[in-house]
């Protein structure tokens, strides 16, 4: 997250630098009063830019090692450009009716304003960092919630798959029971048919035995008792 904060501060610095770099060229065309205001504005913006660079240095120390070389190079370049602008502004305002006492008095007032601006920037930066921390915490909370939701979904899918497998097993068991029931029905029909045939065979056998006994009795009667 440090690299993202560094980029935000970098955009703020670039905006300040674009405003600062126009001032040295404007100074020679201004009258004394305008040059005083321009110098005051320059020092205020220069102080803001310096504060932003200090914030970037802090982010550099907290940044991952893979980003530090590029960030350090940019910081050195921004420091060099800012110092050059300060020298250019000093040379532009020298010799245009600004006495040393006037410039010193102006700088004294500007430094007081710069300190106030620095305090304001630090307060804004603290709020920005606090907001960034809150955003990071919210992002982590969302990531945890998404991870828990994904795990819950995975568990739910596993349960659904398991229930699907159990349903298939129950369907197969039910089909086997149906087949078993049909086989038992056919077996009962066969047994009933066999039972009827057995009873029929027993009756026929009884009838045949009775007929044979009757024939045997008739033969004995005719042979021994009827002369």
UniProtKB/TrEMBL annotation:
One of its GO terms (cellular component) is Golgi apparatus. GO terms for biological process: Golgi to vacuole transport; intra-Golgi vesicle-mediated transport; intracellular protein transport; macroautophagy; regulation of protein localization to plasma membrane; retrograde transport, endosome to Golgi; vesicle fusion with Golgi apparatus. It holds the Pfam family V-SNARE. It is a single-pass type IV membrane protein. The chain crosses the membrane at residues 203-222. It is found in: Membrane. Keywords: Coiled coil, Membrane, Protein transport, Transmembrane, Transmembrane helix, Transport. Its main location: membrane. It comes from the Eukaryota. Belongs to the VTI1 family. This is Vesicle transport through interaction with t-SNAREs 1B.
């Amino acid at each position: 997250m440090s690299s993202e904060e560094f980029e935000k501060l970098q955009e703020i610095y670039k905006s300040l630098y674009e405003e600062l770099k126009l001032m040295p060229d404007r100074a020679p065309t201004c009258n004394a009063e305008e040059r005083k205001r321009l110098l005051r504005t320059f020092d205020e913006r220069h102080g803001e830019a310096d504060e932003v660079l200090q914030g970037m240095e802090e982010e550099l120390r907290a940044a991952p090692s893979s980003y530090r070389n590029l960030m350090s190079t940019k910081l050195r370049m921004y420091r060099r450009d800012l110092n050059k602008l300060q020298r250019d502004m000093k040379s532009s305002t020298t010799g245009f009716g600004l006495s040393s006492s006037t410039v010193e008095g102006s700088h004294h007032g500007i430094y007081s304003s710069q300190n106030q601006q620095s305090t304001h920037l630090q307060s804004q930066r603290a709020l920005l960092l606090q907001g960034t921390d809150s955003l990071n915490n919210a992002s982590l909370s969302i990531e945890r919630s998404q991870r828990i939701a994904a795990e819950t979904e995975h568990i739910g899918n596993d349960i659904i798959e398991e229930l699907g497998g159990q349903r298939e097993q129950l369907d197969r068991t039910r089909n086997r029971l149906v087949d078993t029931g049909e086989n038992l029905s056919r077996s009962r029909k066969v047994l009933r048919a066999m039972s009827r045939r057995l009873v029929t065979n027993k009756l026929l056998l009884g009838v045949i035995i009775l007929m044979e006994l009757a024939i045997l009795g008739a033969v004995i009667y005719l042979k021994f008792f009827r002369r």
